[in-house]
Write a structure and sequence with these properties.
This protein is mainly beta. It is built from no helices and 18 strands. It is globular.
Length: 230
Amino acid sequence: ANHNGGGLVFGPDGYLYIGLGDGGSGGDPQGRAQNPDTLLGKMLRIDVSGQATYSIPPENPFSAGGGKQEIWAAGLRNPWRYSFDRLTGDLYIADVGQNKFEEVNYLPAGSPAGGNFGWDYYEGDQLFEGKPEPGIAFIEPVVVYDHNQGCSITGGVVYRGIDLPEFEGIYLYGDYCNGSVWGLIQQNGTWNSQLLFQLSANISSFGQDSRGEIYILDHRTGSIYRLVHK
């Protein structure tokens, strides 16, 4: 009854991306995240443009068979919010960990289909269970934090607005349990993350309007906050 859906986002390629968790149960005991014959634990990609239902983009790794055709990438536990940078097309995925580590994954625009984010061989950047098949190349997270800093990551967006120019190009993400909001940016090939502020909120999602301004949703109270200068 959990870890089933993490979002619906149209990518810069016009396709619909569907994030699905591994279905729960703790530790993915059914091995769904690495199983190409189930949609769970994956990022799916389908074409819904001008069609009664949908079709499969030919670049999907299993479009010609060998697994579920909708699969675009594998190895996710619970992709709780993901977004494309509206300027560059880069993809950021926040994946909720099991009981020790939370992570942010990053794919630059134009990355090929068929990526594997490692769950449940890895939780964050640490081995979790099992031994990977030889030859699998995993995409390593760009940020990992442990449960001394929070307990459940909520992915956000890269700021491309007008009102907060000091946040330009920074990916904002938070933690559901303690309301922390961090800023992440890549500088000279190195990823740097910094705690920006903390809300008295259970952050369940981030949003942005047509101008690129940022909103934060509080699951506890049902409130919507808008980021403005203090």
